[in-house]
Write a structure and sequence with these properties.
globular; alpha+beta; 4-stranded antiparallel β-sheet; single chain; binds flavin mononucleotide
Length: about 170
């Protein structure tokens, strides 16, 4: 697991990579990343997460047309939820976003375990994504995730180390 002792150490070391090398991701690694998204827990096991792997020059250009956060990555995952599949709670909460988010998180951490970098990107307008990728009505864009080998001079952004105090986050009651 990338030389890390345990999961916590891995979670602490992961950071948003905003500069990538051109090196393409090996198929076996990509398959493992996608598998991590496939096995993610989802509400009522509806599995509404849908993943587009953007690798062609045309697809990557479309990504650049909808967000400035592509960072030269040779691969970008566009993760959607399927409105027709996702569970909706009795109180109205749409679980598709939650489910897709968990899938993205698992893929992000598996990528890191494989020595790859990622950056979670929500800096786009959903309507632009729907139009640019000609998505069917049932798909809701949830996240984009550049993924690949970090550039040699990639470093964590200044916010990476800014964690709120544990007392602010946690209250034992
Ligand atoms: C829901 C979500 C949306 C985000 N959107 C963007 C984005 O559009 N562009 C970007 O550069 N980073 C984005 N980030 C990355 C955060 O800025 C980053 O995780 C945070 O600053 C902590 O830094 P770290 O990931 O390096 O630890 C996003 C992260 C999350 C969880």
């Amino acid at each position: 697991m990338n030389g890390y002792r345990d999961f916590l150490e891995m979670a602490e070391q992961r950071y948003s990579v905003r500069k990538y090398s051109d090196r393409l991701i090996e198929k076996e690694k990509m398959d493992k990343v996608l598998r991590a998204g496939q096995v993610a827990p989802t509400a009522v096991n509806m599995q509404p997460q849908r993943v587009f792997v953007l690798q062609s020059p045309e697809a990557l250009e479309k990504a650049r047309n909808v967000t400035r956060f592509t960072f030269g990555a040779p691969t970008i995952l566009l993760v959607c939820s399927d409105k027709d599949k996702a569970f909706v709670m009795k109180d109205g909460q749409y679980m598709g976003t939650v489910d897709a988010t968990i899938a993205v998180t698992q893929m992000m951490l598996e990528a890191f375990a494989e020595g790859l970098g990622t950056c979670w990107v929500r800096g786009f307008d959903r309507n632009d994504v729907i139009r640019e990728f000609d998505l069917p009505d049932n798909l809701v864009p949830e996240a984009m995730m550049p993924i690949g080998y970090p550039a040699d001079d990639s470093v964590p952004g200044p916010k990476h180390a800014e964690n709120i105090p544990i007392e602010e986050m946690v209250k034992y009651i």
